[in-house]
Design brief:
Blueprint: H1 8-11, E1 15-19, H2 23-35, E2 40-44, H3 57-61, H4 76-83, E3 86-88, E4 91-97, E5 102-107, E6 113-117, E7 120-123, E8 127-129, E9 142-143, H5 148-160, E10 165-169, H6 173-184, E11 188-192, H7 204-207, H8 209-216, E12 220-222, E13 226-232, E14 239-244, E15 247-251, E16 253-256, E17 260-262, H9 265-269, E18 280-281, E19 293-295, E20 300-303, E21 310-312, H10 316-330, E22 344-348, E23 351-357, H11 360-368, E24 376-383, E25 394-401, E26 408-415, H12 419-431, H13 436-441, H14 456-468, E27 474-475, E28 486-489, H15 493-498, E29 505-506, E30 524-528, H16 533-544, E31 548-552, H17 555-566
Parallel strand pairs: 1-2, 1-7, 2-3, 7-19, 9-16, 10-11, 10-16, 11-12, 18-20, 27-31, 28-29, 28-30, 30-31
Antiparallel strand pairs: 4-5, 5-6, 8-17, 13-14, 14-15, 20-21, 22-23, 23-26, 24-25, 25-26
Helix pairs in contact: 2-10
Bound molecules: flavin-adenine dinucleotide.
Flavin-adenine dinucleotide binds at residues 19-25, 44-47, 54-55, 57-58, 92-93, 124-126, 145-146, 174, 263, 266, 297-299, 314-317, 319.
């Protein structure tokens, strides 16, 4: 029978202290125990819970998850019983003495302080929601959401104050999830967002597509608006939210969801290296600038695998994976963390949204700083499964790729089903350094309920590959001169009648060949349809008939999204 061979680090007894007992901390300790039966492992958390599902908090507030206990994934006693790991709750680590390798812990219930020595220390302190020092920020009824006690306070406030109207500040994932859950409780929600659109990590013309879904559920949107402060409305004793541009919104409750910052006080005070984004700097084995101290999860900065930039992840998946890498490193296994790529998903009412990799907005930002990554984009609109099978719905996708070698850089998608599956496939392709040609060739599941013989992923790859192979010249709306360029709209006549670009010419694709002798061969023709497919077909016909033409990437829908953002 094969014997498990232990290396020196696994067979030696060492004492490991872990600060933070949720995604990163809990994943670290369990992996560590599987690698070493000998290690003494103590995990501290200042809060009352260990390993709870923070991602479920908005749904607990909304009673979709009815019981608090359902958020608790492992009980403290299970850590002792199943893993021989000591968990100390209500135990805040207040300082790290690197020289003597010890931490000072405060028992937050009894107020007592004591020290604990370590051979290895792991910092998994997570992040804290941003709570800016605005006038009135400490008024009762203004909440952030990070913990189970936060959610219980929000639930109590809603009940005790019969909350009817709420303002959610920030249209990111947590803001949107809270919007959905509050709406489900019968609360009327107004979102206040500084950007022109919700979902800050999406490109504007994609994100703006969910505005309709939100408005359809009665959510009021105040985009391009920032909060200046809060006060108590004298007449109604409700909260007054003051905004810039000048506006006052009266409500019963405010949820602040304007981002999170790595909780680095301990690390900073201990003199560990902190990066420009405010996270602890670690190497590929999650080791900090002190070889005896590791850090994982929201508290660290990691390299983005697409751009090579330092980035914060603030997501559960990377926290768990980093924890596993760190545990392996502590016990002498030479694995390295590949980096992060911002793969995230969210459901907001009937829209699923997901993305992976880098956005065009960030590529432009990095380029301004000198990190120029050439890119091209395609947009597609494709059914999530064979449209002859009942229940299919459209997926809108934007794919960003390198025009040099076709490497996939990022993807964003919105739809009513099957969105996260496509983004997951592309996420894996990105991690493997995949190209749009790989997407084109990917063999994916197909039965009518799940996909199509040409899946959304394949079609994205095909659309991009067509451009790279020179089958179709393309142009972006930004590069069009609306008064001079000859715009050819190949959408159907009824669609053209409903809305069109002033001065454009309509040649419906269903009868497109009838129009060939009406088109001007001496002019460059700028062709577009709704999203790109019919324009591509039309361009192929035109090119083979001697016309000079280009396909406008993103089509009429992207044009409309751009117009909406200007309003
Ligand atoms: C409402 C909400 C929804 C989310 N939804 C998703 C989602 O759908 N998908 C996703 O991937 N991610 C989601 N996240 C993010 C995800 O929860 C975090 O990325 C993940 O929990 C990070 O794990 P972590 O271990 O680094 O930090 P945390 O989970 O924040 O744990 C850190 C712990 O450290 C403790 N701590 C901090 N300082 C000390 C100290 N000095 N002494 C003792 N203890 C200390 C804290 O009390 C805390 O319990 C969501 C987060 C929130 C708040």
């Amino acid at each position: 029978m094969a014997k498990t061979r232990l290396n020196d680090k696994q067979s030696k007894k060492q004492k490991i202290c872990v600060i933070g007992a949720v995604a990163g901390g809990a994943s670290f300790v369990t992996r560590a125990r599987r690698l070493s039966e000998k290690a003494e492992i103590i995990m501290f958390d200042r809060g009352p819970h260990v390993s709870f599902a923070s991602c479920g908090l908005p749904y607990y507030v909304g009673n979709v998850i009815p019981e608090e206990s359902e958020l608790l994934m492992v009980k403290p006693e299970d850590f002792r019983g199943m893993y021989n790991i000591e968990v100390r709750l209500f135990s805040e680590v207040i300082s790290v003495d690197r020289k003597n390798k010890q931490i000072t812990v405060r028992d937050v219930q009894k107020g007592k302080e004591y020290t604990e020595s370590y051979d290895t220390l792991v910092i998994a302190t997570g992040s804290q929601p941003v709570r800016p020092k605005l006038p009135g920020i400490d008024l009762p009824g203004i909440f952030t959401l990070r913990s189970i006690p936060d959610s219980n306070q929000i639930k109590k406030w809603i009940k005790d104050n019969n909350v009817k109207e709420a303002v959610v500040v920030g249209g990111g994932l947590i803001g949107l999830e809270m919007t959905e859950n509050l709406t489900g409780l019968g609360v009327s929600v107004t979102i206040v967002e500084m950007l022109p659109h919700v979902i800050p990590f999406f490109d504007p013309e994609m994100a703006v597509r969910v505005h309709g879904n939100l408005k359809g559920k009665g959510v009021k949107l105040n985009m391009n608006t920032s909060v200046k402060g809060f006060s108590l409305d004298e007449a109604s004793h409700r909260i007054k939210v003051m905004t810039e541009p000048d506006k006052k919104i009266i409500c019963d409750m405010v949820i602040l969801s304007i981002g999170s910052r790595p909780e680095v006080k301990l690390a900073r005070d201990a003199g560990l290296e902190i990066g420009d984004l405010g996270g602890v700097r670690v190497n590929e084995q999650m080791q900090t600038s002190d070889v005896s101290i590791y850090a994982v999860g929201d508290v660290v900065e990691s390299r983005d695998i697409v751009t090579g930039e330092w980035a914060l992840s603030l997501l559960s998946g990377p926290a768990s994976r980093q924890a596993r890498i760190a545990a392996d490193a502590v016990f002498g296994r030479n694995r390295t963390f590949r980096g992060i790529q911002a793969t995230a998903a969210c459901r907001i009412f009937d829209a699923d949204i997901a993305s992976t990799g880098v956005s065009e907005t960030n590529l432009k930002r990095y380029a301004k700083r000198g990190n120029i990554i050439p890119y091209e984009t395609v947009y597609l609109i494709t059914p999530n499964h064979a449209d002859y099978y009942p229940g299919s719905s459209m997926i809108f996708m934007k794919l960003i790729f390198s025009p040099q070698d076709g490497k996939i850089l990022g993807a964003q998608a919105i739809g009513a089903g099957g969105v996260e599956k496509r983004i997951d496939v592309i996420a894996m392709a990105i991690q493997m350094g995949g190209t749009v040609y790989d997407m084109e060739e990917a063999e994916l599941c197909y039965a009518p309920q799940f996909g199509a013989a040409k899946d959304v992923v394949n079609i994205g790859g095909m659309a991009a590959s067509n451009i790279l192979r020179g089958d179709i010249p393309t142009v972006h709306w930004d590069d069009i001169n609306f008064s001079e360029n000859y715009l050819l709209d190949v959408r159907e006549a009824d669609e053209f009648k409903e809305a069109h670009i002033e001065g454009s010419f309509n040649a419906p694709f269903s009868i497109f060949r009838q129009y060939l002798d009406k088109l001007d061969k001496d002019k460059k023709i700028y062709v577009f349809c709704n999203q790109g497919k019919m324009a591509y077909f039309a361009c192929r016909i035109l090119l083979q008939n001697g016309f000079d033409c280009v396909d406008i990437i993103g089509g009429f829908r992207t044009y409309q999204a751009r117009e909406r953002l200007k309003r």
